[in-house]
Amino acid sequence: MELKKRNIPISLPVTGEEEWQATKEPLMTGWLTSGPKVSEFEKLFAERHGVKHAYAVTSATTALHLALVALGVGPGDEVIVPAFTWVSTANVVLYCGATVVFADVDPVTFNIDVNDLKKRITPKTKAIIPVHLFGLCADMDAIKAIAKNIPLIEDGACAAGSGYKGTPAGALGDLGCFSFHPRKSVTTGEGGMVTTNNDKYGELVSMLRNHGASISEEQRHKGPKPYILPDFNLMGFNYRMTDLQGAVGVVQIKKLDKFIDEREKWANYYDKELAGISWLRTPQFDKTIYKHGWQSYVTFVDEKISPISRNDLMEYLQKHGISTRPGTHAVHMLGYYANKYNIKPSDYPGAQAANDHSMSIPLHNRMVADDYEYIVNILKQIK
Q: Residue 13 — φ and ψ, nearest 5°?
């Protein structure tokens, strides 16, 4: 195959005519804020993820914030989060006035290290946020055995359509939180979802996302007295998804499994073709237990035996038209958290290794076979 330079983005959403047409209804009816399209999206998402309740919000960050507020997290409480995750997983704890407690991660799966988690639990631990990073669910049974009665909030920002032992992400903890950012498998531009099987938490989330209103805007406008404003017995937030986004979400969620199946096919191709590169570790997990959602394909560069460093490798690939990224960042190594909690990078060695050596390569539904073949061939050339 002739190698030619091109530009392969790390990720691109799959949107087009169908999504465009879907936005016409809210635009023509004038119902642009949260309404019937959001409700339809929520219903479809809940059905796909095996939960009683799903509530659409503005982002996974606001979803996580609402989940913590619904659990009553506040000053004096501690919330355990993995040290290797997107920064918002930790930020939402501070939004509540609580204390972030980091747990290390397994640098093979990139998910929370259950042995380290056990050491971090104290009488002040009010919640644990396991992250299903890159679409691979955390080992929820092991976490539950350690957590006992501590509530679990799944950070499933990357995990729409993922599963663990036959149960979908979002139905594994007390609450689940998802993202519809364009780098995710399905998108609404920005947007998020909170899932739960707990009626009490569901009712709280529903009210909290809408300023604390006792009923939704849709319920009020379609009720017998739309001119009567609802009561507000809670201090809430304006975290509502728009019906424009909901309309796009309705189209996208119906494509989720098709998107994941296609990504899994090419993830398997990467696994096979890259197996001979000794210094590049591909994703490792038990396929009989985990249903990977493949939000990203994240490798690990072993610099002890690699011909060049991870960063030099990313620069080399960029020059050859292949976009890469570190998997994500180690939050304890970011300036704000390092200073706030006086943390050293080596305090969480698994997260530090993941931060310094993980590398995501392109995997998305806008790629074609030639793109994957090109990436594999360029990687194989590196000696």
A: -75, 155
Residue with tokens 């995990």: 159
247's enclosing H/E stretch is helix 243-253
- Which tens digit of pLDDT belongs to each residue from 352-379? 999 999 999 999 999 999 999 999 999 9
C-alpha 266/C-alpha 8 separation (Å) is: 15
- DSSP structure class, residue 36: H
First to last CA, the chain: 19
CB of 195 closer than 8 Å to CB of 53: yes
Phi, psi values for residue 347, rounded to 5°: -65, -25
Q: What's the rounded mean pLDDT across residues 167-185?
A: 98
Q: What residues have CB less than 8 Å from 28, skipping those under 6 apart?
A: none
CA-based max dimension of the chain: 73
Helix (H) or strand (E) holding 281: strand 280-281
- The tens digit of pLDDT for each residue in 34-82 reads 999 999 999 999 999 999 999 999 999 999 999 999 999 999 999 999 9
The overall pTM is greater than 0.85: yes
Q: Is 119 a catalytic residue?
A: no
Per-residue pLDDT at 217 exceeds 90:
no
Structure tokens at 122: 């104290």
CA 347 to each of CA 16, 83, 103, 341, 343: distance values in angstroms, whole numbers, following the listed order = 46, 10, 10, 11, 7
pLDDT at res. 229: 82
Going through 21-103 in order, the beta strands assigned E by DSSP cover: 53-57, 78-82, 99-103
- Tokens encoding 27: 């635009």
Q: List, in order of start, the domains of the chain with CATH numbers.
A: 17-255 (3.40.640.10), 257-381 (3.90.1150.10)
Catalytic choice (37, 126, 184, 291): 184
pLDDT digits (tens, 9 = 90+) for 223-239: 777 777 888 899 999 99
Q: CA 109 to CA 289: how far, in whole Å?
A: 13
Cα–Cα–Cα angle for 310, 110, 256, nearest 5°?
Answer: 105
